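Standup notes, protein team

Yesterday: finished cleaning the Bradyrhizobium campsiandrae set.
Today: VOC family protein structure.
Blockers: none.

Input for VOC family protein:
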Amino acid sequence: MSNEVPPVPRLTVVTLGVSDIRASIAFYDALGFSRRLKATSEAVAFYDTGGSVLGLFPWDQLADDASLPDQPRPASFRGVTLAWNCASREEVDAVMAFALGKGAKLLKAASDTDYGGYRGYFADPDGHAWEAVVAPGIEVGEDRRVHLAN
């Protein structure tokens, strides 16, 4: 039997492979995310999202870094969504309108969910799907962090 202490699990960074790093930086800057480590210039971009980090990295370089093929690139749903949790239905509507105004593509207009929430979907310039959502049991604090009910 081992007395080894397992590492503490944590999700710290979500890195998106992007086709045009300049356009993606402009999009996420326009959404108001706070870019950090700007010394990386356009090689990679990091954004403080309030508890985790969103990274942007050229798609082909990210694939190479992970030893994965760059082609074929998926033309449709990748099986992953990112969430922008909100405090109210009104905030969901405001986030959707704001993102669309900054160049996001509408995937699904905000509507009621079967679990008592409210959500809509938009896509960034590379088609990465974002959900703007308010959901029971998930609160967003003043610290911008998500707090889950027990």
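Follow-up from PR in the comments: The beta strands are 13-18, 34-36, 45-48, 53-58, 81-85, 105-112, 118-123, 129-134, 138-140, 146-148.
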